[in-house]
Amino acid sequence: MKIDGGLTGLTTPAARSGLGAIAESAKRLEEAGYAGAWTAETSHDPFLPHAVAAEHTDRIELGTSIAVAFARNPMLLANLGHDLQRYSNGRFILGLGTQIKPHITKRFSMEWSRPAARMREMISAIRAIWAAWNGDEKLAFRGDFYTHTLMTPFFDPGPNECGPPKVFIAAVGPLMSEVAGEVCDGLICHAFSTEKYLREVTIPAVERGLERSGRTMDDFEIVGPGFVVTGPNEEAMERMATGIRQQIAFYGSTPAYR
Q1: Which residue intervals of 90-233 are DSSP H helices?
Q2: Which partner from 25, 63, 158, 213 sits 20 to 30 angstroms from 55, CA to CA?
Q3: Which helix (DSSP H) or strand (DSSP E) does residue 170 occupy?
Q4: Alpha carbon 209 to chain centroid distance?
């Protein structure tokens, strides 16, 4: 088992005048013995902090939990993952999620359809792009949602000496959990998921996906986030508790999470 932490610093006063708060947060997590540091895509970009964290740490894994996949295209995500894997010397995890339809169509102004099938194809396209950059094959990906058939030397970053990053996806329902098992290296569970739901719905779906890809749970990682309230004093804990209550209320009012 690994214990990870959240990479903070984006919303602190110091962050408004520089990137030092992110660096300090990353160093604190590593010094405290955490195995990894994660960022979420809420009110700030989830990738930028990891470029800073990679420069100021040596050991911990760095990952997005999660970046909104359907707000981007496979080429963009492949490039971000490739570069952050190189900057971190092989420690980056590309963690992706679908979000829900209103956010994709109304906030990001992007298309939404068949999310599980689209996510499966997106991951496959990203891997095809990485394979082309590593010289394994010519880029010739054609799918129902994405097509990538052009890669000239000028735009090819070349092989990544660290190999491709691990790819995790967030999943709530069984279809997306199957996709995780089929084409990904790990699953990011929803903090709202109960132990009963994970054992009876999520894990069996992941195992079905793994079977299709010829793998087992030994080849797969599961991330289980939780709602945690902590702080140096009562005032800080109350602020965090207020934020957690708001988060639970948000998830509880979202039909897709019921």
Answers
A1: 101-102, 115-133, 174-183, 195-197, 203-212
A2: 158
A3: strand 166-171
A4: 19
Instruction: Name the percent of the chain lying above pLDDT 70.
Output: 95
- In SS3 terms, 26-60 reads as HHHHHHCCCCEEEECCCCCCCCHHHHHHHHHCCCC
- Domain ranges, residue 183: 4-257
Residues 202-257 pLDDT 10s = 999 999 999 999 999 999 999 998 888 888 899 999 998 998 898 888 888 877 76
pLDDT tens-digit profile of 127-180?
A: 999 999 999 789 999 999 999 999 999 999 999 999 999 999 999 999 999 999
Angle, vertex CA 230, rays to CA 229 and CA 233, nearest 5? 130
- The predicted model gives 25-31 an average pLDDT of 96
Q: How many domains does the chain have?
A: 1
Reading the block at residue 97, the tokens are: 């999620």
Give the mean model confidence (pLDDT) for residues 73-88. 99
CATH number at residue 208: 3.20.20.30
Furthest C-alpha separation in the chain: 58
Q: C-alpha distances in angstroms, 143 versus 19, 147, 149? A: 40, 6, 11
Return d(Cα 86, Cα 9) in angstroms, integer. 23
Amino acid at 128: A
CA 82 to chain centre: 14
Q: Tell me the pairing of strands 92-97 and 67-68.
A: parallel
Nearest to 222 by CA among 202, 208, 244: 202
At which residue do the structure tokens 């599980």 appear? 116
Q: Give the contacts of 185 (CB within 8 A, at least 6 positions apart).
A: 93, 166, 167, 168, 219, 220, 221
